[in-house]
Amino acid sequence: MGSKLQKTSAAVDTTVKLLSILCPLIYFASYLTRKNYGVIMTAIIENEGMADDVAGFIETLALISYGAGQVISGILGDKFKPQNIIVCGLSTTIACNLLMPLCPYNYLREIVWFINGFAQSMLWPPLVRIMAETMDSRTYSRVCANVNVAGIGGTIFLYLSYPLIWQKLFGVNGWRATFFSSAVLCGVVLTVWLFGLRAIRSDERISFNKRKREEAANEAGGKKLSLRLILGSGFVLIALGIILQGMLRDGITDWDPKMISDTFGITADKAILKAVILPVIGVVSLKLVGFINERFVKDEVRAAGLTFVMALACLTTLFFFHDKNEYLTLALSAVSVGLMHAINFFLICIVPLKFEKFGVVSTMSGVINSLTYVGSAAALYGFGFISETTGNNWRIVIGAWAMIAALGVAMCFAAIRPWKKFQTEE
Description:
Blueprint: H1 2-34, H2 36-48, H3 52-79, H4 82-99, H5 107-120, H6 124-134, H7 137-170, H8 174-199, H9 210-219, H10 227-232, H11 235-264, H12 268-274, H13 277-295, H14 300-321, H15 326-350, H16 361-389, H17 394-425
């Protein structure tokens, strides 16, 4: 009997260790094949003569499908084996990234990137369910931070590989090589994922049968998640905070190279290379916030509100000094994005765990993450529109960023009391 228990424990430990590697790899591949358009958008605009708002519209469509798809894949992730949904999503995104550089400049690009957005939505909610149901809370927090770091690592790779490799090798067609290389690397990750799952297929914890759902229902005392519970929990306020965080995180990240290029008169490839500081600071932020959350944070919504306060201070400073020095502009932008990654961790990674007892962690993760990309979609088109219509007056855009951060402060602090009450009544 003792030997059997030891074998079971060893199997579980092996499963968690392997998933701790595989889950970040999936998100690395996800960011490679989703963020690549945003990273090289400035180069596409420069080489293809696209207007800012038109280029932003392609990404906006993808974010709309990504956001809507999050809800669908979240529901599917609670009903079916999440690992199979991930395989489907990765396979589709590989195809889209291979097609994107082959499409002429017409509506085909919009269609392909719209499909890619939906394919990408099939990754995060299933990943959250896999981590939540196979790991304890401390391990989940650590691995979830690593997953987000891996995603940003994919972004860093994109920022470096385009100007240092693909643009130098292929010139004006370097942006096309970025899509092809992303697809190839994603194919490698998909292969590793399939072999990794085969190695732990005998572990019951990744069978995701109905037993876990029944146990969750019993722990919740038969209580089901209702609209009344959600409305009284402060979740609507948290949702608005998540939308605002998405607007700033992806809006600043994707438009900062264009702002640097316009303000200081440097070429797109140099602006993209210098903007690598944004995801680098994001990595530092996530590793730091993971450490802080594990040891000190008792209230994730309050922590998000305080982080919005710090972002507001950075963006207010940027408003007054954005055209004084490009490195100061980059530093303030990078810190602001890093703070958004911290808020993302508190609200996107930790909040869904509060719904685990209701057996809907994947569904709520999908809903919550979709809200981020409601904000992202609005930001990418909206900030591009402001830039285009104001003659690239980036001070106006930065003013909008600061106002969004101020709203984020208000939403999070207003949600603290009802969210705490919801958890005690749970």
